[in-house]
Amino acid sequence: MSETFDVENLASSLNSINLSLFGKITQSQKGFPKLYFQNYYYRLISANVPKYTWRCVKNYCNVRCSTNGNKIGDEYVVNFESQSTEHNHPSDPIKFVQLERRSKIELKASMCDEPPRKIISEFVNEITDEEEIANSASHNADRLFISRKKKESKPEYLKNMKGLKLLEDGDFLPMALST
Ligand SMILES: [Zn+2]
Predict the structure, then answer these.
(1) I need a labelling partner for 76 at 20 to 30 A (CA). Which of 68, 131, 147, 167 fits?
(2) Domain span at residue 134?
(3) Residue 167: is its pLDDT beyond 50?
(4) Mean of pLDDT values over 167-175
(5) Ligand 1 center from residue 42 Cα (angstroms)
(6) CATH number of the domain bearing residue 55
(7) 105 lies in a domain?
């Protein structure tokens, strides 16, 4: 009886250790590594290999920490050395999930020509928690986002061709030809 209890206790202790020690390196919108740890984001302020120092992304917040790596997608133990380890602002776990999802959708949209509906369906499973679903951007907003990203990634001549096609279908073609 007491052994079972101990195992459960150990398991939950291990879980909390995992939660409290490891941070994940994500990619910022500009392509730089960004540390995500316990619902807060940090940007890299110095790389003194193997020690990478991070600071909270909020300009008015002074919390700093360090890891021994900055490879995007990897997880590292996060060490706090500064006196101030308390953020002076709330964390944002939902935003993290949405940003991760958006950056994946963006990558996909810029690389392939699949319709937005198909791309969205591939990422629906990524949202599991009910709260996340409630907070996630609407389907329509995702669709508009994908269209915009596709447009941005199209070369100039393709954008112009689209304009030409509109001309052909419209009533203005004869006028355009006559000038
Ligand atoms: Zn902060």
Answers:
(1) 131
(2) 93-153
(3) no
(4) 46
(5) 8
(6) 2.20.25.240
(7) yes
